[in-house]
């Protein structure tokens, strides 16, 4: 199991071992892939982060690293997740058990890499995981991209954050005590990540939540389709002036501001 240009390692916690792909130097960023796995588009995002001066670590939570997205592949992985004990697709007020592994991994990565702390980018079904990792003190820069859990079945789940009540209280305390920010990304017409979910984040986190919502309504200026979902990967357009490129630039600025030391920022 290899990805060209990336070193392959493993991380174990609580009896669970998963492969991790790493590349780059600089502040550490954990990139959590979408369904169905670490696709070429996810690797391209990791490459962009490396080019921007970050050390990227991609744990493989499911799927086959490097395998391209297809309908059949995505459906098969979704079926596996439906019966998985590690990912809770419908839990409105509880985080998925896999987030415990991710928090331990963030801690280990920080110990290895040093610096102020680590950044985390979660996307789609793993988008909410970036929120959960804030329970780990080393996480300073969470990026919540089109968070799709819980699956928006009914209005309550559509607005939920996939966090337990005690977890939410602890996260809000960290934000207040440490002056943290949360960056959120979604397309305006995305039904997998409803507007009500971002409304809840505004209500709960106030000005500490920084939302970027890209217009995907009919007739929008950039021709973004109504079904657009993955801001940084499958629906990303790397052209100057395109809102997804602007969103990536905002992510890079956010990570730099939170993770680089004063001396690095002045350099």
What does this structure look like?
The model has no long low-confidence stretch (mean pLDDT 95). This protein has one domain: 3-Layer(aba) Sandwich (Rossmann fold). β7, α7 and β8 form a beta-alpha-beta unit. By secondary structure, it is an alpha/beta fold. 36% of the residues lie in helices and 19% in strands. It has an eight-stranded mixed β-sheet with strand order 1-2-4-3-5-6-7-8, sandwiched between helices. It is built from nine helices and eight strands.
Number of helices: 9
CATH architecture: 3-Layer(aba) Sandwich
| Helix fraction bin | 25-40%
**Number of structural units classed as domains:** 1
Can you write the helix and strand succession as a string? EEEHEHHEHEHHEHEHH
Mean pLDDT: 95
Spans where pLDDT lies below 50 across 5 or more residues: none
* CATH C-level label: Alpha Beta
Strand content: 15-25%
Shape: globular
Largest sheet properties: 8 strands, mixed
In CATH terms, what is the fold-level topology? Rossmann fold
Strand order of the largest sheet: 1-2-4-3-5-6-7-8
Number of strands: 8
Distance, first to last CA = 38 Å
Corresponding CATH superfamily = Alpha/Beta hydrolase fold, catalytic domain
Task: Please state the structural category.
Answer: alpha/beta
From the alpha carbons, calculate the radius of gyration and give it in angstroms. 17 Å
């Amino acid at each position: 199991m290899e990805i060209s240009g990336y070193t392959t390692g493993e991380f174990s916690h609580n009896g669970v071992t998963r492969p991790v792909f790493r590349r780059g130097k600089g502040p550490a960023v954990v990139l959590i892939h979408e369904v169905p796995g670490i696709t070429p588009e996810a690797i391209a995002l990791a490459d962009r982060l490396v080019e921007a001066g970050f050390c990227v670590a991609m744990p493989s939570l499911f799927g086959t690293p490097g395998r391209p997205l297809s309908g059949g592949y995505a459906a098969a992985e979704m079926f596996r997740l439906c019966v998985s004990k590690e990912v809770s697709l419908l839990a409105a007020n509880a985080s998925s058990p896999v987030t415990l592994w991710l928090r331990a991994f963030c801690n280990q990565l920080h110990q290895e890499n040093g610096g102020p702390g680590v950044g985390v980018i979660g996307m789609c079904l793993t988008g909410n995981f970036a929120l959960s990792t804030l329970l780990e003190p080393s996480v300073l820069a969470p990026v919540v991209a089109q968070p799709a859990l819980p699956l928006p079945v009914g209005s309550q789940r559509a607005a939920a954050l996939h966090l337990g009540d005690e977890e939410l209280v602890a996260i809000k305390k960290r934000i207040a005590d440490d002056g943290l920010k949360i960056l959120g990304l979604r397309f305006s017409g995305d039904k997998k990540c409803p507007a009500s979910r971002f409304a809840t984040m505004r209500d709960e986190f106030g000005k500490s939540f920084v939302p970027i919502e890209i217009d995907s309504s009919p007739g929008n200026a950039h021709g973004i389709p109504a079904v657009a979902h993955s801001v940084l990967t499958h629906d990303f357009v790397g052209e100057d002036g395109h809102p997804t490129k602007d969103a990536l630039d905002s992510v890079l600025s956010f990570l730099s501001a939170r993770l680089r030391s004063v001396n690095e920022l002045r350099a």
